[in-house]
């Protein structure tokens, strides 16, 4: 008999289940936002811009934990869609601030709808109390992972 744990032990772990469900949920969300010409990373940038006042590309990269070059590419694509605009900071003319436009708010609302649709599909087999408990637990886990 082997001392190595098997597939049942792996399937019993939270990390394995979250990873599997995360990939599935991500694919479903990506398919939905693709219908409005976006990718999940676009949705993340729109949400980050909506969460605070205008921010520079460098600040957004630091806040989101991604390379500044990714923010530049995403911002270029969102600007081409009319969803964001770059404005020179009056305090520092070298700095460009990204802000959401009306179209950006519309696309963000569509992303939220897409996420809600994916949530409903993913949790269709759960009762209201289970769905609420799952959302609360995931939110708490996420908050614990944010570096202080």
What does this structure look like?
This protein is mainly α and 148 residues long. It has one domain (7-122): Arc Repressor Mutant, subunit A (Orthogonal Bundle). Helices cover 66% and strands 11% of the residues. It is built from seven helices and three strands; from the N terminus they run αααβααββαα. The protein has helices spanning 7-11, 14-34, 40-51, 57-64, 68-80, 102-122, 128-145, and strands spanning 55-56, 84-89, 92-100. It has a three-stranded antiparallel sheet. Helix 2 (14-34) crosses helix 6, helix 3 (40-51) packs across helix 6 and helix 4 packs across helix 5 (68-80). The chain is elongated.
Q: Any idea how many domains?
A: 1
Number of strands: 3
Q: Which parts are unreliable, with pLDDT below 50 for 5 consecutive residues or more?
A: none
CATH class: Mainly Alpha
Ends: how far apart? 45 Å
Helix content: 55-70%
Task: Specify the number of helices.
Answer: 7
- Compressed to H and E, one letter per element, the order equals HHHEHHEEHH
In one word, what is the shape?
Answer: elongated
The CATH topology turns out to be: Arc Repressor Mutant, subunit A
Evaluate the radius of gyration: 19 Å
What integer is the average pLDDT? 91
Could you name the CATH homologous superfamily? Winged helix-like DNA-binding domain superfamily/Winged helix DNA-binding domain
Approximately how much beta-strand content do the residues carry? 5-15%
Q: Label the structural class.
A: mainly alpha
Arrangement of strands in the largest sheet: 1-3-2
CATH architecture: Orthogonal Bundle
Largest sheet: 3 strands, antiparallel
């Amino acid at each position: 008999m082997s001392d190595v744990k098997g597939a049942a032990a792996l399937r019993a772990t939270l990390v394995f289940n979250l990873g599997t469900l995360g990939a599935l949920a991500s694919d479903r969300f990506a398919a939905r936002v693709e219908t409005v010409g976006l990718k999940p990373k676009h949705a993340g940038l729109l949400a980050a811009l909506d969460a605070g006042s205008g921010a520079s590309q460098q600040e957004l990269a630091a806040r989101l934990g991604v390379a500044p070059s990714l923010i530049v590419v995403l911002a270029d694509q969102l600007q081409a869609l009319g969803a964001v605009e770059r404005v020179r900071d009056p305090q520092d003319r070298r700095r460009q601030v990204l802000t959401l436009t009306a179209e950006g708010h519309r696309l963000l609302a569509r992303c939220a709808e897409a996420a809600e649709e994916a949530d409903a599909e993913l949790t269709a087999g759960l009762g209201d109390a289970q769905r609420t408990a799952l959302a609360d637990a995931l939110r708490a886990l996420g908050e614990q992972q944010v570096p202080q």
